[in-house]
Predict the structure.
Amino acid sequence: MRIPLYLAILLLGAVHVGAAESWKSADYIKYEKMAEAGDGTAMVTIGLYYHQGEGVQQDYRKAAEWYLKAIAAGNADAFNNLGVLFRDGNGLPQNRKLAYLIFLTIHMEGMGDEETVMRANRNLRKIIDTTSDAERGEALSYTWPYVLQLVMSLGADTEIRDSVLPTTELPRIRDNDWWLDSERARMTFESPPPWDKIKAAEQASQPITTDQQAIEAAMLLLQRHQADWGPVTRVLRTGSDWFRLEFAHGTDQAERVVLVDPATGEASFPMPR
């Protein structure tokens, strides 16, 4: 089962970013207005301003926040740039294993245009040359929810909870359906604890109480159905206390809906009326 990381990020959305500068150049204002209108290219451009210190004081953390916002808007270049920040430890906790996975994801998924993929491939070759087999083996032993947790927290949340450990329904990246049989056959390394054990999937669902838990339950349903929907636009509680999550769907005017039962945590598509 493949769980594309970029889809999960789109579903969860991104951090809110606001500009705090007392002055703003004409270019900055132009891109800021475009970003406010949802332009991912403008968002990554503002991120580059902060990343490179061009026109603003260099601030790697703000760059990362803008990149995360651009990723949620579907910009693969921002994902690449975020990987560079993790690789170099600029403004974020250095995490070369996560950077490796980011570059690998862009390469394997063919994210962005040809230039984006080529740049990711260069970054991927470079980080393969500068990391050990053990480091890459550990990275490939993670699950997608754990990678998502690291990305969305900008590297701050490294806790390995039971909910991100591999199960028969939640594969490790090494068990993803990306790989050719010949590639999979070469993965003879041992996954380190706690990624070395694959538990049976839990049969009993857990009750949920927060909007974030409802979003995560809906995300898993969409991933199982390979549903390419946009970010969450609204989370509502119905009269029966169910969670109703509305998702954008490309340029379609109609929103798509997922219902989540708070008693069981199970997500479902509503029955046609």
Notes: The mean pLDDT is 84.
